């Protein structure tokens, strides 16, 4: 009977230790997620003078192969406090789009035609010496980068205007999945045109980030 009680006691102790270890692992994962969210959404940083690179893709999904076919690449970046925009049409795929009118309406420079294999070099060149890489709703953009073997260096913080909106500005009763770029530009009373040309989208996402940051920093300073 004593042995039986001892075994039960040892079993309870081992179970308790397992549960404690599991809880520690859960807490550690939550802390990592919290830090990643903070890094990706924090607006209290200098997005004007630091180098920020905004990236956006237009693409088709090849469902059979489970791969992305990029039709357009938009890149915008801050250089010395000035935003420069670039728009690339991907030679192998861009003519496949049914409605191509917006492809010709890049408002911040001249569109260039490049091959698909040039994309990694263009992005790696753009993000060199960057402090931040910017997306609006990053999941699919990240998947495309991964598909192309493009790795973002750990020292570069990834920022997402969708997450920043959810953290600082989302109102009760608003869309649970966040807002589209147009919705946030309207919310912050910013003029825009020809969105869904990804050159314009990348440029306006960067302008939006700067506006959101200025608004939040002003709010923090005047609490």
Compute the CA-based radius of gyration: 23 Å
Strand fraction:
15-25%
Low-confidence stretches: none
- Broad structural category: alpha/beta
Series of H and E elements: HEEEEHEHEHHH
Largest sheet, strands/sense/barrel: 6 strands, mixed
Distance between the termini: 67 Å
- Please estimate the helix content: 40-55%
Q: How many E-type strands? A: 6
Number of separate helices: 6
Please tell me the overall pLDDT.
89
Please tell me what the overall shape is.
globular
Give the neighbour order of strands across the main sheet: 4-3-2-1-5-6
Describe this protein's structure:
The chain has 223 residues and is an alpha/beta fold. It is 43% helix and 20% strand. It has 6 helices and 6 strands. A 6-stranded mixed β-sheet has the order 4-3-2-1-5-6, sandwiched between helices. Helix 4 packs parallel to helix 6 (198-221). It is globular. It starts with a helix and ends with a helix.
Can you give me a brief rundown of this structure?
The chain is an alpha/beta fold and 223 residues long.
Observed structural traits:
223 residues; six-stranded mixed sheet; globular; 43% helix
Write the layout of secondary structure elements.
Elements: H1 2-41, E1 52-62, E2 67-79, E3 82-90, E4 111-114, H2 119-127, E5 132-135, H3 139-147, E6 157-160, H4 161-168, H5 181-187, H6 198-221
Parallel strand pairs: 1-5, 3-4, 5-6
Antiparallel strand pairs: 1-2, 2-3
Helix pairs in contact: 4-6
């Amino acid at each position: 009977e004593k042995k039986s009680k001892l075994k039960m006691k040892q079993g309870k102790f081992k179970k308790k230790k397992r549960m404690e270890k599991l809880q520690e692992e859960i807490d550690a994962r939550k802390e990592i997620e919290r830090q990643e969210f903070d890094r990706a959404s924090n607006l209290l940083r200098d997005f004007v003078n630091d180098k920020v690179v905004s990236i956006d893709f237009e693409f088709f999904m090849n469902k059979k192969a489970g791969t992305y076919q990029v039709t357009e690449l938009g890149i915008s970046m801050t250089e010395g406090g000035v935003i420069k925009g670039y728009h690339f049409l991907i030679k192998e795929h861009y003519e496949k789009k049914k409605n191509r009118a917006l492809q010709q309406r890049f408002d911040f420079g001249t569109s260039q035609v490049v091959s698909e294999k040039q994309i990694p070099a263009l992005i790696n060149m753009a993000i060199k010496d960057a402090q931040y890489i910017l997306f609006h709703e990053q999941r699919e953009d990240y998947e495309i980068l991964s598909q192309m073997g493009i790795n973002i260096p750990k020292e570069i913080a990834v920022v997402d205007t969708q997450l920043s909106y959810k953290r600082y500005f989302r109102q009760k009763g608003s869309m649970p999945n966040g807002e589209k770029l147009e919705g946030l530009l309207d919310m912050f009373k910013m003029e825009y045109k020809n969105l869904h040309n990804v050159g314009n989208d990348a440029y306006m996402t960067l302008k939006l980030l700067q506006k959101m940051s200025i608004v939040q920093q002003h709010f923090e300073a005047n609490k």
